[in-house]
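Could you help me review a protein record that somebody else here produced? Here is the record exactly as it was handed to me:
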Amino acid sequence: MSMNTYAWKKRAARIAPSSTGLQQGFTLLEVLVAIVVISLGLLGLAGLQAASLINNQTAHHRSIATQQAYDMADRIRANLAGVATGAYDALGANTPADPACIAGGCTVANMAVTDHSQWNTNNGRLLPNGVGTVDCVLGPGANCSNNINAIRTFDITVQWTEKTSAGNLARTFVTRVTP
């Protein structure tokens, strides 16, 4: 090997760093950056999952409220004699005692009280702080009881409380029914 070749190799070694020289620890830095990026991505994914669960619970409550409102509409349609006497004209949020009458042995007024009691009991059981009201809004006179032969229209309202990030919010579902 000539002196010229040896000097050239020695000079090349000074110019080009060795693989164990200046690049030590660079791979460790890449791994740490990758861990940070993956961690942020997983935190974002967890946030999306939490938002999805909250929205799913909200949709579930709205679905139950809709079913409960239609349940009362069906109860009203099943007792048209009670509608004609005004038994459903103003059912409040309070749950009356169920007279526990049997369908064949009830008066139309007792059947309306039974419907009201069972319906509001179910509202409270199925929805958080769930209550329901029925109000006659169109029909015989301003209070719906002046003319028992007129066609009545009812607003059926279901209310409940939802937990949100802003705190508890009161929610309401209202449907209008003409039996």
About this structure: The chain has a mean pLDDT of 83. The CA atoms of residues 41 and 81 lie 62 Å apart.
